[in-house]
Amino acid sequence: MRNVVFVLPFVTEGALRFVSGTANVPGVRLGILAQDPADKLPPSIKDRISGHWQVQNAFDPRQIAEGVQGIAGQMGPIDRLIGSLEPLQEPLAEVRADLGLPGMSPEVARNFRDKAVMKTIFESKGVPCARHRLAHRREEALDFIAEVGLPVVVKPPAGACSVDTFRLETQGDLDAYLARMEADPVLFEEFLRGEEHSLDAVTVGGRMVWYSISKYWPSPLTVMENPWMQWCVLSPRHVDVPAYQLIRETGENAVRALGLTTGLTHMEWFQRPDGSVAVSEIGARPPGAHFMTLLSHAHDVDFHHAWAKLMVDDTFEVPERKYAVGAAYLRGAGTGRVKAVHGIAEANAEIGSLVVEARLPTPGQQQGNAYDGVGFVMLRHEDTELVARALKRAVEILRVELE
């Protein structure tokens, strides 16, 4: 038996899928380190864990280390320490190094987490990416703008999911941003033009053994700039085709440059109008926005379990890709709570046969500012173009009304 500690800052539906996937790995005894008490875990999970330790801050390396030692007192020596969230990867790596546990090292974790370090490595290794500058002062930002021109994208060096990421289009935008620029360094990047995609990949022993491509409609940044906008992601059935050979090779080079030996990565990339590609950024963790569920539907395999087995056993069984899949993410115009969802009957009549999973917004649900909206509809079929057309119809027909 192997004793595995899963760091679960908060009990959420998405996080519990990873916990369940880990509990299902043969030969694993599972302990949970969390900010939430054990009583908040559903019985289906609570009955399957052998240890639990509550901390005030599950992102603090010191508290993680103390929690691991506490769980070791309940279960015995710990063999693996894992977690699925991007902000966890650096503190987990620090604790692994201190406790002598296997897994991603602190240096590699920082290469993936700090986007300024990442882009510098890319440049040194010949991985195509946007020109960039980590600006600590206003003068550094202005020097970079003089070099690349407007528009530019600004983001925190350790951001994720386009949070606190902005596009500065005009001199007025730039002046307004610089006027409120704080002491913390900000990453300025050349604005990449083209179609935005992602590449999810599994690397084992330094070699990419599996990958998947997804296309965004529209780009994540555009979605963050327009909180009312409903959007789609499409993952084609066939990805091992000449059209994706360049990005597959580029993605493998990028992961290798950052030093990852074994793990799952999520990479954002652009295909420029001339056919060339450029890497935006990579996270050494599972993708968000329910992508893991989409991948599960594409292959008829539980990818949450496959990720856990990769993290625990350093192995990955490459599954057959059977379907094209996609998701339409539902959001209302404005802010507030959901009043109603319109077009359900029409959407069901037109595209219902393709739906494999759906979570429609419910009256009273708070919209908030979540990137993946207040609901989604997932579709799949062997025909990629059929899924693409159905996704566009889904965001045209379904409308979320807020109050």
Placed side by side, the strands forming the largest sheet appear as 13-12-9-10-11-14-17-16
Helical content class:
25-40%
Computed over alpha carbons, the radius of gyration is: 21 Å
- Approximately what portion of the residues adopt beta-strand conformation? 25-35%
Give a short account of the largest sheet. 8 strands, antiparallel
Q: Averaged pLDDT, please?
A: 94
N- to C-terminal distance: 53 Å
**Poorly predicted ranges:** none
Shape: globular
Q: Which secondary-structure class do the elements indicate?
A: alpha+beta
Annotation field: number of helices: 14
Number of strands: 18
Give the topology, please.
Elements: E1 2-8, H1 13-23, E2 28-34, H2 43-46, E3 49-54, H3 61-75, E4 80-82, H4 89-99, H5 106-113, H6 115-125, E5 132-135, H7 138-148, E6 152-155, E7 166-168, H8 171-179, E8 186-190, E9 195-204, E10 207-217, H9 220-225, E11 231-235, H10 245-258, E12 263-271, E13 277-283, H11 291-299, H12 303-313, E14 324-330, E15 338-342, H13 344-351, E16 355-359, E17 375-381, H14 384-397, E18 399-402
Parallel strand pairs: 1-2, 1-4, 2-3
Antiparallel strand pairs: 5-8, 6-7, 6-8, 9-10, 9-12, 10-11, 11-14, 12-13, 14-17, 15-18, 16-17
Helix pairs in contact: 1-12, 3-4, 4-5, 5-6, 6-10, 13-14
Task: Explain how this protein is built.
The protein is an alpha+beta fold and 403 residues long. Helices cover 35% and strands 27% of the residues. It is built from 14 helices and 18 strands. It has an eight-stranded antiparallel sheet, sandwiched between helices. A four-stranded parallel sheet has the order 3-2-1-4, sandwiched between helices. Helix 1 (13-23) links the parallel strand 1 and strand 2 (28-34). It starts with a strand and ends with a strand.
